[in-house]
Amino acid sequence: MAVFLHRLGRWAFHRRKTVLLAWVVALFALGGLAGAFGRDADAQLTIPGVESVNALETLQERFPGGGAGGASARIVFAAPEGAAVTDPELTQAIEQSLAEAADADQVAAVSDPFQAQGVSPDESTAYATVSYDVQVDEITDDARAQLLDVATVAEDAGLRVEFGGEATQAIPAQGAAEAAGVLVALVVLAVTFGSLLAAGLPLLTALIGVGVGMAGVLALSSVIDLTATTPTLGLMIGLAVGIDYALFISIRHKEQLAAGVDPRESAGRAVGTAGSAVVFAGLTVMIALAGLTVVGIPFLTSMGLVAAGMVGVAVLIALTLVPAMLGFAGNRFDRWKVPGLGRRQAALATKESAGTRWARTVTRRPLIVLLAGIIGLGVVALPTLDLRLGLPSEGDLGAETSQRQAYDLLAEGFGPGFNGPLTVLVDAVDADDPQTAFADTAAAIGELDGVAAVSPAIPNEADDTAIISVIPDAGPADAGTEDLVTDIRDLRPGLTEDTGSELAVTGNTALGIDISEKLGDALPVFLLVVVGLAFLLMLAFRSILVPIKAVLGFLLSLAATFGALVAVFQWGWLADLLGVEQTGPVLSFLPILLIGLLFGLAMDYEVFLVSRMREEHVHGAEPKEAVIGGFRHGARVVTAAALIMGSVFGGFILGHDATIKSIGFALAFGVLVDAFVVRMAIVPAVMTLLGKAAWWLPRWLDRALPDVDIEGAALERHTPARAPEQELVSAQR
Question: Which of 209, 211, 276, 291 is the most buried (most CB within 10 A)?
Fold first, then answer.
């Protein structure tokens, strides 16, 4: 592989204009397709086969035309202080607004708060439910705009009007806060290279790769369902790995230029060596992310495949566009020096680096470093024992959003459980007396703890199915609501025996609970699949113990990341500092998503750092010196890469969307902990303690495994060293 990539790098360097043109054409072509066929990424978080989804499908079948399963919105009216929504002039304004809402596009029905018990006990708040005759992903922008316009009449009368519900939720936008991570990445690159030209190259190629990847994703959105989080996740991953992969190749190119290698040959060797590691690391990330398909959850499958696709584009960019851009730079790769960094760059070339000094410290006291790392991460991981999973609600949105303000008004006026109503479906098709079954079910539910209110059963036209609305005492994210769902479902056997009916619990709150439970059950299975992928490292390092060490290190960093998530987003530690406005359960899909993402990213650093150690070992260095030599070459680039990736992910913490904020925090924390504690402290300590045993592999297995040669040893046989003047003649040809 190294020989092929070496040739590819030299070809891309020589045909740089062709390569650049091809990527620009791909960008504009996919951008055109995205503009023509792309649609909003607003698929819902659902899992086929769980009770709440099955019950919702039954509702759509048994209550045709009732809006069951269609999108809905809420219009919340709050009276001025000292007034009531029942005051005649305010009531008239509310009714006019609702009449306009009923005339809006795609609206099937609008409830009357004064007839449907939609007024709070203190008469300060009223709400109306707007039911649509289409699914949420089919609501047009014009229909949403018409709904929001109905607030004018009520606001002119002095009422406060807020909107909530799934139909009003817009796609989270990327703002200047996320760009902060890119700026930090540029600073890190500038310090690493000491040159603005060299620093800008990885950033430019990564942005082109992200543009191509995102355009492709949006073009495919016409045929696949994407949640609102999926494109942002793809952007996050694509940008981070795109910069890192370009950095790995560019830094090797810089080192070789300093050694006097011709630019074209240097680009070829950089792609043949560092590029081999990029390919192996990228494939590992892609397989781990694509492995989310084995869980069998559609929205996670789309997330994993989109992220894997973005990584794939980043790998292709690194192998082709990066050497092409190195060709445009030519001998001027270090052009536009950063003021004040010249002395630092000169010192790095002549003096022992901080990474080398750290490696010597670790190799002198490996056991102490190992124990300190394990104990430290273990302490950080302790909050994981209190991990609770849940789905995001409007209560997790930023305080400035209308959805969050509507949520808060309803909680104040009607109680916290009002935002998490449970819909109980009573199927009495096989019951002898359906009306008795409906009444007995409502009465049994009303006797349970944690119930604030139970509505009378509403039967369908066939009188064989009914809906009962249950308002919990606690909010939708509270553990008490989850207990109530379990208690209602526990009534099923007794009611079936007594009345012959079946009950099922659905609604957004029950759906969130079911999804969280399903994801929790899938977590150990997926973890085993991903951990099994670590043994692909056996191909790269020709070792049994290195993959085992890599897996154990990954599990440590993963546990610490879960612990930090619980501490910040569930317990509220440092919540004000990070802008976390609402604490609650950790996103139900985040742990399983983190396993795939962090595993892949952790293996990136494992490959890039340990491959340099193996390179030293292959060239005859003793075990301890191989560790130090690997650090001498790899620590600087891994440090820069981790800081870049951490800053890109960290930039998303500054956004307002709670879902994106938690994903950004988890990835930033996980990457930094894995890079600096696991890979740069625990790994060299373990490698030192293992000594020569670290590279042990049975001969029969060595013969059976294909040789991927990520250290590029084959290049020494195929590209013998030539004098710089010979290389120049070759490049000119």
Answer: 209
